[in-house]
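Schema walk-through. Below, the input block comes first and the output block second. Nothing else is stored per chain. Lengths vary across the set, and this one has 260 residues.
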Amino acid sequence: GSEMTRQQQMSLHKPDPELLPPVITLDAAARLDAPAARALLGTKAASLARLVGAGVPVPVGVVVTTAAAADWDQTCARLRTLAAELGGGQGQRFAVRSSANAEDLAGASYAGQYDTVLDVRADELPEAVRHVLDSAASARVTAYRQAHPETGATAAPAGHPSESGAGMAVLVQVMVTADAAGVAFTANPLTGDRDEVMISAVRGLGERLVAGQATGDQWVVRDDQARCTQSTEQAITADQARQIAALARRVHAHFASPQD
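--- output ---
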């Protein structure tokens, strides 16, 4: 009996890949425990699933999990079905981005090397997901090659993600047509002051800011006072800055550590 219990305990930590869902909604993912969520969803999607569980507004979406590579055709079929159920009809567009596991990033920052695909139509989702998986795989291969120059890397068969993309998850969310977007830091990144929320914002989508193509507006919010320290785009108002800071502080409180 005790041997069986040990096996069951092990299977909880190392679940059978064939029993894992290839695609899961963020709502369903919110019910997973933290270790399972990170293993199945990668760090970014696991964090968003926790926020969904905490009642924080997060654009609806699904995660193509780390188990997806086992049966790519089944994954694509499930992805189409779940994406259609997210609502928005035929014209709905999606944002597709990588969600890597923290342990896969040890000793190598892949920032900017994984591709993000925006404004994706429902029928283009499998191709976009494969593109993100392959970009993650090539970033991994590059890092591995630099560490082990004597090894080569193999290409994937057409239509399937490359093998080194296994263990990666991909986040698919309904595209938000933003009036303004940006980043909020719950501790001032310049001073470390946790009583100040610092906000960078641009007009439209946030990609220009994240990619370093725009500096954006800078706001500092302390208590209920919002002051603009740099204004290049007039992307948000003081009242919006206060609302963003309040939301950011809720996330900080939930995770019990500074967030961006």
